[in-house]
Every structure is written in structure tokens, then in C-alpha cells.
Amino acid sequence: MDWTALWLSVELAAATLAVLLPGGLWLARWLARTRFAGKALVEGLVVLPLVLPPTVLGYYLLVSLGAGSPIGRWLLQTFDLRLTFNFLGLLVASVVFNLPFMVQPIQRAFEAIPPALIEAAAVSGLGRWATLWRVELPLAWPGILSAAVLTFVHTLGEFGVVLMMGGSIPGQTKTIAISIYDRVQAFDLASADRMALLLLLLSLLAVAASFFATARLMRPRA
Amino acid sequence: MGWAVGAALAPAWAQSQVTVAAASDLQFALEEAAALFERQTGHRLRLVFGSSGNFFAQILQGAPFHLFMSADEQFVFRLADAGRAVDRGRLYAYGRIGIIVPKGSPLKADGELRDLAAALRQGRLRKFAIASPEHAPYGMRAREALQHAGLWEAIQPRLVYGENISQAAQFATSGATDGGIIAYSLARAPQVAALGDFALIPESWHQPLAQRMVLLRDAPPAARAFYDFLTTPAAQSIMVRYGFAMPR
Amino acid sequence: MSPAAAVPDAADAVCDGALHMQVQQDRPMPLAGELSCAPGELLALVGPSGAGKTSLLRCLAGLMHPHSGRITVGGQVWLDTARGVCLPPQRRHVGLVFQHYALMPHLSARDNVALSLLHVPRAERARRASAWLEHVRLSPEQQRRRPAALSGGQQQRVALARALAREPALLLLDEPFSAVDQMNRQGLYDLLADLRQVLRIPIVLVTHDLAEARQLADRLVVMDAGRVLQQGTPEQIYRSPRNARVADLVGVQNRFAGRWLGPLAPQDEADAAGWLEWLASDGTPTGQRLRVRDKRRLRVGQRVTWVVQGDALHIGAEVQEACAGGPIGCVALRAQVVARRNLGETTFAELALDGAPGVRLRITRAGPQRRALQAEGWLQVRLDCDWVHVMPVRTG
Predict the structure, then answer these.
(1) d(Cα B54, Cα A29) in Å, to the nearest integer?
(2) Considering CB atoms only, which of C116, C147, C149 is closest to A124?
(3) Hey, is B215 helix, strand or coil?
(4) Option in C94, C115, C163 nearest A134 (CB)
(5) Which of A41, B78, B180, C264 minimizes the number of CB atoms within 10 Å of its CB?
């Protein structure tokens, strides 16, 4: 049982959530509320990581952020910062890769709020922040929870992207999915079994929680 | 928050731990050698196993490894030419390949591949595993051996490719294939030996697996200590036990 | 009624709490009109779907920005496109009651009303919210419930309380009773009537239910295709619709074709009367001529459309009563019931005019007076010509 790898995966998932929750929330609300030319393009870009093979994403990130690229060189010179083969690089990849998982459910949740309610809040004197806090968030929270849970679990099991640009470095980039892969190759199937089962249970739990939350959103409010 | 974690982790880990990128055929042998080194010196090692070709590409992209142990010296020379290594490295072992057949396979473990040829002719071969000839040295040697035996063309449609020699060994012993060509060093490990029968393929059938290791730029002193340790008799006897031949 | 006429500044200088509005736009949908509403007055916007009534209301609320316009309430400028002034809904003290209530499903009735009271300290907020809910006759137990546990009528009361808690300078109601069942509607009408005694603010009601408009409103504004067609008291509009379109929109049932003959005798001039030849819709004469008011707007020989309110047609026992037409007089007609529809207590009947079977009189009677419509054969119908309203035919 590779506790280091598990802890690393949990850290990565939590960090991804910390970055993506506020950002995704803002983006999802903006997409739900605004109409503008090119909106379809933005929505397409948000969904893109969903259909992109993880290895393709990993490859592009490696090439565009690695030490050989202009961005990578600039980061190294200015901040002494690397974005490949380390936790930070995985975090960047994870944030990009999980964008649709975070944004889409939240966007749907905001879209489900009848516009009349927002208007009613406005004529009752509520400004934008008050409307968000008192009306929108209380109504959209199941969608937000669902998005957060999905993102967390999805990051926990991330493999393809990590493989491409992680380097499988224990304690840095060897996430639990990589560890399972590694143990299988080392003919240590017992260890691989245990970790795979744990990952399966965690994922199942999270998905069940997210379905429960979504059902709350659908049920007419009593 | 992730920023803080990542930024904090990166330099800290780099300093305290030597990171070794090792070819997959060293999976068992190096674990033993590293354990011995850690006990003797107290230095902590992080071993990462994979295909030599992949590591080569990653190191060119700036992967933060300190020591690269390749299963093919070409990769070391190219890294040195690219200015990534401190010198042109040192030959640390010669590897061998052989055929392994899992329990219950219709194939026989014949090092001269006669049974394999027969199986191909009779059309009774299902799948056969080798490492990827594109970037895994053991895969390249397996291809050479099969070409030497005149079986390469015929066996093409039956091949499955492991991403590195360990994965090839996984495929070869899992029962999903009829067998494969894997590293001798892996077949010597008890976990693998228990899974099937193994026979060495003659050395003359392929290019030598001259395994070379090299220190990379910015490697800490502990890395050099390990580099030197690997040529001591204690370390070499471990390697020999796993079927590696020592350079003269 | 010319749209886009600037409201004189003198009117806003008077801080009388009145609403003055004028808007104009072509896109995305045409809107043009001008209306005013005094404090304590209830103005009903009526018209078919898509007439622009709700759009106008939304402009008043600040939820929609017309291309050009001016809105002042109680002297305060809410919108003035010429000067770039446009207050957001939050800054206008407006109360808006939505058609489908728009209550927050996750809050109790009291908390819903409290949303309008965020500028008030918390302790005070709950007390005031409760007070407003009592005003709209919701019990304390009901006040604690969430909207889903309240009936449509109760929900609309909560919505009303929420709008009023804001202490608005203008109250807007967007088809507020259309989603409420018949039984509860009358209760809400009564509530609104009671509240009007207390609130001295302009109230604008949008409805497509003409009966409702007639019952509740002091004045009507008839709209069609984004334009304000006519404003006035219900009596004025029903009696004297400006043109055939308005007549249609307010549901004047008896509309006929005619030709204006003008005054034919010296007595006509004295009585300010003129003669109208009654034509069938295809232009053929019916043989009837009517003596009606001459408003001196028509040319002799001009083709006209004329309407008469149902109140002006008398059948059965009513025929015997004295003609209320004054100098204009009444006329006796013979007609026969050709179609009859009974809906509950009311009977709607179509009568064909003697000598002109294509011309149909539409008469509605309720209660015991329906009996007159049950008769077979020729009926006497008395038409009070004083009620006849003549309009030139709309060309184009």
C-alpha cells in the first residue's frame, strides 16, 4: 500500500479543487447568465478536455510548458519555476483537464434557476453579490457539490496526463494510479489489488454522493 | 494553495532525495542494490522504472532525474552529446534476452525459437509479447533476434508490445498471450520465475545489451556516491545474481 | 396620441407621486407609447399576447431598457435616455408581482418578504415581514411555510407582500391572477381593492382578462403590436373605441358597417344628430337607418364602422321601458335568435336582423333575464341610438 502515492493524489485533488472551485464557479455563472458572440466557442473550449485523450493533453502541456519552450524558459528565468515533472505541473494539467467536470454541472445548476427569481431579487433591492449569496448559491449548491465531488474523484484517478508529464517521481508526481501501474509491472499484484480496490471504493462513494446531491436538485422543494 | 504545496515540495524533495531513472529490466536487481546502499550510507534513493527511450525523451525535456541507468548505451551517448550529462557515463552491465512461456502455454521454452517457428507455421500461435522496439532496448533486441530466426515477418500480426520490458513481461506471463521475449534479469526474480519457463536466446542473435549509466547535470553528491557504489563488488554480485554479465 | 412627445418639465416638477412614462423603440421589438398614472389610481394595460404590455411593465421595473424613453415617478427620474440616466431596478423603489409568483423556493414566506427588507436591521426585518403578511391575510402558521406548501392564491399574496414591503413608489402587477384558480381570484381582487385604500401610489396592472380589467381599473390602456392605441376609463373606451381595432381588442361584440348620411333635417342639426345607413358587411343596405350622435368628424357618404355596447340593446320586458336615448332616441328592430350558447348562468345569443339575415346582433344575458333569449320566432329589440359610436373605416 503506497501511502505516499495516495497522499499525493489526495493533495493533488484538493489543490485542484481549491483552484478550480472559485474559478469554475465564476466561469460557470458567467456562461449561464451572459449571451455574447463566440459563446459557443468558449463552451466548446471548456468541454474540449473531456474529449481530448489525456496523453494528448499531457503531450501539449509538456511541449508548451516544458523547459524547452518559451514559456518554460521564461518561468525558469523569472521565477526559478518548473512546470513539468513536479507537483505544480501536475496541478496545472489537472486544472485544465478538470475544467469541464467543474464548469458544466455548475453551469447547468445556474441555468436551472428561473430568470424570474433573479429579476424578483433585483426588484426587491438585492445587488449582485446579495443575489448570488441569498438566491443563486442556495439553489445551485447541489450542482456545485456534484461538480466538486466529480472533480476530486477524477483527479484522484488521473493517469494519462500524469504519465506524460509527471515522470512518476515518488512523492512528487507518483500518484496512486501511477503507483498501481508501477506495482503491476513489478509483479507485486497484491499491492496493486489493494490500491485499486481502495480507489474503486472511493470513486463509488463519491459518485453516489454526487447522484444524491443531483437528485436533491431535481426534487421539487418541500 | 497548490502553488504553495508544489513550490514547497519541489526544491525540498530535490535536495534530500536522489532520483534514479532506471530501465525496467533493473526492477528487482536495483531494488536490492539500492536497499543495501541505503542501509550502508543512510542516503535515501527514489527509483523510477520505465523504458530507457522514454526516460531519454523526458530528460531532454528537463525531467529532474539525477542518475540515468539505460539498458542501451546509445541513449547515454545522445544525452551526453546534448549536454545533459556530466560525462559519457560508465558501462555497468550486459543484459540478456530469453523466451518465457507461462504455465499452460502451448509453446515450449526453446531458446533457439524452434518451437515458436513451428507454432507460427502451424498457425497455432495466438499472441506473443515483446517490449516496444521503438523505444525499449529489450524490444529492439527481441526484434533483432526474431529477424535472425527469420520469424519477424510472420510473427508481426501476433505481437503485443509492452511499453517497457516489465510490461512486456506482464503480458508474457499473464496467460493472455502464449509467451514473450523478456529480460533475463526479470526472469531471474522469484516472482516471475514462478509464473513460467524461461530459456536464454543466444547472444550472437542480437546486438549486445550494453547497459550504460550516467550522472546528469546538477546531481547531488549522494548520486555520485550511488554511481560509484554500483561498481563495487557488493553491488556487482547482486547484479550477477540477476543474470547480468559484468563488463571486463 | 402621439408617441415620443416630450413630457413637459412642469409635470415632473410637481412632486405628486405620479407616474409618467414614454418609450419608443423599433428593435428588438417595436414599442411606442405614453401613459400616466396618478397616485392611488390603478391603470390596466390590456391587449392581446405580444402586444407589448409586459415589455412596457418591464421597462418600468428597470428590467428592460428601451431604446429611447423617459420615466419619472413622483418627480424622480428613473429613465431618461436623452440624458443617459437609467436607474437599475435596485435603485428604483418599485414593487413587481410576477405572473408565476417568482418566490424563492428555499425560503419561507416570511423570509421571502424579508428579502425586500434587507436595509432594515434583522430583528426589525422579521417583525415587518410578518406584519405585511398579516396585511395580505396569511396566518402565522402559513407564514412559516415554504412556497411549495402554499396554494397559488396564497403564494401570490406572499408575492404581493414582498412587493409592498419595499414601500414602493410604484406597484406593478404582471398578469398576477392568471395563474390563480377562479375560486381564489375574487379574494385577491378584494384584497387589492382594500390595499388601494391604504396605498396612495400609482398601480399598473397588466392583464389579458378584460372582465378583470373592467372590475379593477380606474383607467385602461389598450395596446396592440407595441403601440398604445387608446387610454381612458373603461366606460369611455367601451362606449367610444377609437377605431375598429380597439373595438375588437376590448371585445365590443356589436360592430357593423355603415354609410354616413349626415344630418338630413333641420331638427338633426339642432339635436347634433346625423343619420347612419346600416349596411351588411358586404356593403348591401339592410334597409335600416339610424339616427345617432353627430360628432362632426365624418364626411357625408363616407363608409364607416360603427359599434354599440351590449347595454344599448334591450329585449323582452326591457323593450317596454322608456327610451333613454334623450334627443337622439331609440329604434325598434326585429330579430330572430339563430344561435344560442349557454354557459352556466349566462346565455350568449346571436340574432339575425329582419331583412338582413347576414347581420348579427350579439346579446348576452345572465340570470332570470335569459328567458327572453329562449323565445322562438321574431323578437323585438330596442336599440338606444345614443350609445352608437361611429368611426371612419381604417384605410391601409
Answers:
(1) 42
(2) C116
(3) strand
(4) C115
(5) A41
Q: How far apart are CA B49 and CA B168, in angstroms?
A: 14
Contacts of C102 in chain A (CB under 8 A): 114, 116-117, 119-120
Predicted ipTM of the assembly: 0.79
Number of domains forming the structure of chain A: 1
Which domain CATH number covers A142? 1.10.3720.10
Q: Does the B2-94+208-241 domain belong in CATH 3.90.1200.10? A: no
DSSP one-letter code for C137 = T
Return the closest-CA partner of residue C213 out of C164, C179, C177.
C177
Please tell me the pTM assigned to this model: 0.75
Range of the domain at A201: 3-33+42-218
Name the residue among B189, B214, B213 with its Cα closest to residue B31: B189
Which of 119-148 (A) contact B at CB < 8 A? none
Tell me the C-alpha distance between A49 and A154, whole Å: 13
Chain B residues touching residue A174 (CB < 8 angstroms): 48
Residue B19: its chain A contacts at CB < 8 A? 169
Kindly report the nearest CA distance between residue B33 and chain A, in angstroms: 16
Contacts of A222 (CB under 8 A, 6+ apart): C146, C148, C149
Query: Distance between CA C58 and CA C25 in Å, rounded?
Result: 14
Q: Over the stretch B174-229, which tens digit does the pLDDT of each residue have? A: 888 999 999 999 999 999 999 999 999 999 999 999 999 999 988 999 999 999 99
Q: Could you tell me which chain A residue has the CA closest to the CA of C61?
A: A123
What is the tens place of the pLDDT at every residue in A132-160? 999 999 999 888 988 999 899 999 888 88
**Closest in C89, C146, C147 to A123, CB measured:** C89
Residues of A in contact with B64 (CB under 8 A): 82, 85-86, 167, 169
Q: Would you state the CATH architecture of domain B96-205?
A: 3-Layer(aba) Sandwich (3.40)
Question: What is C9-93+168-245's CATH number?
Answer: 3.40.50.300
Nearest CA-CA partner of C354 in C267, C302, C297, C278: C278
CATH code of the domain occupying C253-392: 2.40.50.100
Mean pLDDT for the stretch of residues C361-387:
85
Q: Where are the domains of chain B?
A: 2-94+208-241, 96-205
Question: Which residues make up the CATH 2.40.50.100 domain(s) of chain C?
Answer: 253-392
For residues B17 and B43, what is the distance between their CA atoms, to the nearest angstrom? Answer: 8
